[in-house]
Design goal:
The chain has 245 residues and is an alpha+beta fold. The chain is 28% helix and 26% strand. Its EC number is 1.3.98.5.
Length: 245
């Protein structure tokens, strides 16, 4: 799944990306996105320290989305978004210093799909510089995915026109959920174990299940989709999430 279901209208209130001094830690286009999934420290989470850490990064214009993870794979999830990858890495290190034991992580960069390159700049901007989570959508699901490169089904051996056709079909299925689900697809080829990270935001948890199930029947997914682990949670302020662990 690599077509957004609906547009995110606003962007974060940070410096204009074109004015950021280019360094090896800042993407030329887009922002870094770091998903961190952690077990709570055995001695208990440092609630005040965690809240202060999140507020400190947010005061720099970055976004920190915290959520309570459902299931035993993790206790708490952090989705951190912003331009300077050093800032993201520092946040990770400080969480580790607070005693969090990471059980999974994923790094990617916001992007505009090659099949959406004809979009206006106004429509590209929310994909590259989004503001999250969308209002009213507090159920979250993250999973990584790649396209198949097998002997029988090889996405990269298809012509551009055929890939575009398949993705148009895929996007048409997704747009049926535009009022209930917002998707952010981020690129990770050469950066992590899969080629994309997919983050879904929904009004209710069963919306997440329904949209993924529906889109599995699209040819782009049925023949070419390779999926990693799924992490599902409920978004809330850090204090509320920490009260649960």
């Amino acid at each position: 799944m690599s077509v957004e279901y609906n547009e995110i209208e606003e962007t974060m209130s940070v410096d204009d990306p074109s004015e950021i001094t280019e360094t090896v830690a800042v993407p030329r286009q887009g922002w870094g996105v770091l998903h961190l999934f952690a077990k709570a420290p055995r001695s208990g989470a440092d609630k005040e320290g965690t809240i202060a850490l999140c507020k400190r990064l947010e005061s720099s214009g970055y976004q920190v989305i915290t959520f309570a993870v459902l299931g035993h794979k993790a206790d708490i999830g952090f989705m951190v978004i912003g331009p300077d990858l050093w800032k993201l890495r520092e946040f990770q290190g400080e969480l580790s210093s607070l005693g969090y034991d990471f059980s999974y992580s994923y790094f990617s960069i916001t992007e505009v799909s090659e099949y959406a390159s004809s979009l206006s700049e106004a429509r590209k901007k929310p994909r590259l510089y989004p503001k999250l989570p969308p209002e009213g959508k507090m159920a979250i699901c993250f999973y990584p995915m790649s396209k198949a490169r097998g002997e029988r089904n090889n996405w990269y051996a298809l012509s551009y026109d055929e890939r575009e056709r398949l993705m148009f079909e895929h996007g048409t299925s997704g747009r049926k959920f535009s009022e209930r689900v917002t998707q952010l697809v981020t690129g990770s080829t050469g950066l992590d174990d899969y080629e994309w990270g997919v983050t879904l935001f929904a009004e209710r948890p069963d919306d997440l299940k329904e949209v993924v199930y529906t889109m599995r029947y699209d040819e782009a997914s049925t023949l070419y989709g390779i999926f990693g682990p799924f992490y599902t949670g409920l978004i809330a302020p850090p204090a509320e999430v920490l009260d649960l662990i």
